[in-house]
């Protein structure tokens, strides 16, 4: 059984006080939240994952409380449907560990006890804690993520513009519910767009590293990548001024009134009215920062930064394509050229009347040595570059310049 290790003096613990009125996920300290992910690194992590999937299936079918036998039955159903589901012998040790890590909450099931002796046998039922369910979903999001999630959404800009126009009209007419709906949707859409853009640029970095070993992967997707980025940057450039005007039009209807309408329609139970207003004010500030309304001349809006990042990404992809094309045309990659040079330099015998430094400059394709003149080049070389395959630099001259 994978029980958590006991805390020692070296274990960092969050001793920040928890409010007396806190409960649920608000009562979780930093250490409690970090322990939620213990199951993902445990020795039996595959068994823990499928057991949590069984609880998730029960939760979807409104079976919130599960006994150990019920969890075992759900695991058997999953194993029939998914061949990669492992065979779990006894689920009780796994349930105990998940309870220790605070992913599951354990309580007594008095309905199963026919007498006092059975009640004392501690028939437990288990259910997700709110924090435990979020930790499980976070792991599932990582396991289920694909390249389809890494894309720039160019079709969202007309919807953002329409929502801003509707938001201005709702604030002007005093429709608080509509203000809340539109402002919530805008906040969610912009957050999603920022996350997708971040994943997209990280994917480009992965693709560039993959090109070092498998250039055919890059060549397969290069046209789709360039088209995707060019279409996105064209739409972003076209809509950014219009979106900035729309944001300003909303501000002209009264920012304080807008915040008051949104906070009044906000139905979060455990937020004080002043906290709700502050939260919506921050969301509005983020929206204005996205499209530059009210930004200083020396600061860039998020839309402008996204535009710059996309243009830079296009240039990087084109540069990568140029390197791949040169390597294929020359029959050798830049990496293999440098590796060959590194192997040759320490072992190559120095030519007569020619310094080792001059040999290196000649191998790098420099027409003139930094210490010797052209007249001092060795026999058989023109301008410090060998005319025959006496040195490794000769095949560079045939394959094309590495620069």
What this model shows, in words?
There is one protein chain. With 403 residues, the protein is mainly α. The protein has 3 domains: 24-144, Orthogonal Bundle (Arc Repressor Mutant, subunit A), CATH 1.10.10; 147-328; 334-397, no CATH class. 61% of the residues lie in helices and 4% in strands. The protein contains 15 helices and 5 strands. It has helices at residues 30-35, 45-60, 68-81, 92-100, 116-120, 130-144, 157-173, 176-211, 215-252, 255-265, 273-291, 302-330, 334-347, 356-363, 393-399; strands spanning 66-67, 104-108, 124-128, 381-382, 385-386. The protein has a 3-stranded antiparallel β-sheet with strand order 1-3-2. Strand 4 and strand 5 form a beta hairpin. Helix 2 packs across helix 3 (68-81), helix 7 packs parallel to helix 9 (215-252) and helix 9 (215-252) runs antiparallel to helix 12. It starts with 29 loop residues before the first helix and ends with a helix.
Keywords:
single chain; Arc Repressor Mutant, subunit A; 3 domains; two-stranded antiparallel sheet; mainly alpha; 403 residues; disordered N terminus; disordered C terminus
Q: Could you provide a short overview of the structure?
A:
The protein is mainly alpha-helical and 403 residues long.
Gross morphology is flat
Which spans of ≥5 residues are poorly predicted at pLDDT below 50? 1-18, 366-403
- Strand order in the largest sheet: 1-3-2
The biggest beta sheet reads:
3 strands, antiparallel
Give the topology:
Layout: H1 30-35, H2 45-60, E1 66-67, H3 68-81, H4 92-100, E2 104-108, H5 116-120, E3 124-128, H6 130-144, H7 157-173, H8 176-211, H9 215-252, H10 255-265, H11 273-291, H12 302-330, H13 334-347, H14 356-363, E4 381-382, E5 385-386, H15 393-399
Antiparallel strand pairs: 1-3, 2-3, 4-5
Helix pairs in contact: 2-3, 7-8, 7-9, 8-9, 8-10, 8-11, 8-12, 9-12, 10-11
């Amino acid at each position: 059984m994978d029980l958590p290790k006991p805390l020692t003096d070296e274990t960092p613990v969050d001793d920040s006080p928890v409010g007396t009125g806190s409960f649920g996920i608000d009562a979780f300290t930093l250490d409690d939240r970090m322990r939620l992910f213990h199951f993902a690194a445990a020795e039996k992590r595959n068994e823990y994952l499928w057991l949590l999937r069984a609880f998730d299936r029960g939760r979807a079918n409104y079976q919130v409380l599960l006994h150990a036998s019920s969890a075992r039955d759900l695991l058997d159903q999953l194993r029939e449907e998914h061949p990669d589901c492992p065979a779990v012998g006894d689920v009780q040790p796994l349930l105990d560990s998940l309870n220790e890590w605070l992913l599951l909450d354990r309580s007594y099931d008095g309905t199963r006890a026919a007498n006092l002796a059975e009640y004392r046998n501690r028939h437990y039922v288990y259910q997700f804690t709110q924090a435990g369910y979020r930790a499980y979903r976070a792991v599932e999001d990582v396991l289920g993520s694909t390249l389809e999630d890494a894309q720039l959404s160019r079709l969202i800009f007309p919807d953002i513009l329409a929502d801003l126009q509707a938001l201005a009209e709702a604030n002007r007419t005093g429709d608080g519910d509509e203000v809340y709906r539109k402002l919530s949707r805008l906040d969610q859409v912009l957050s999603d767009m920022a996350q997708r853009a971040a994943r997209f640029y990280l994917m480009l970095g992965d693709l560039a590293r993959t090109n070092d070993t498998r250039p055919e992967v890059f060549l397969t997707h290069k046209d789709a990548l360039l088209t995707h980025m060019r279409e996105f940057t064209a739409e972003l450039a076209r809509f950014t001024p219009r979106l900035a005007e729309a944001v300003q039009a909303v501000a002209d209807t009264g920012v304080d009134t807008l915040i008051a309408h949104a906070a009044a329609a906000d139905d979060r139970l455990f937020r004080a009215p002043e906290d709700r207003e502050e939260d919506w004010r921050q969301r509005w500030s983020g929206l204005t920062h996205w499209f530059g309304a009210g930004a200083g001349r020396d600061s860039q809006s998020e839309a402008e930064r996204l535009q710059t990042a996309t243009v830079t990404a296009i240039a990087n992809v084109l540069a990568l394509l140029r390197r791949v094309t040169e390597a294929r045309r020359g029959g050798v990659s830049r990496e293999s050229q440098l590796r060959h040079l590194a192997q040759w330099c320490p072992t190559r015998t120095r030519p007569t009347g020619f310094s080792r430094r001059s040999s290196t400059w000649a191998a790098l394709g420099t027409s003139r040595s930094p210490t010797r003149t052209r007249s001092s080049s060795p026999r058989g070389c023109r301008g410090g570059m060998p005319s025959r395959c006496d040195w490794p630099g000769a095949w560079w001259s045939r394959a094309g310049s590495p620069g």
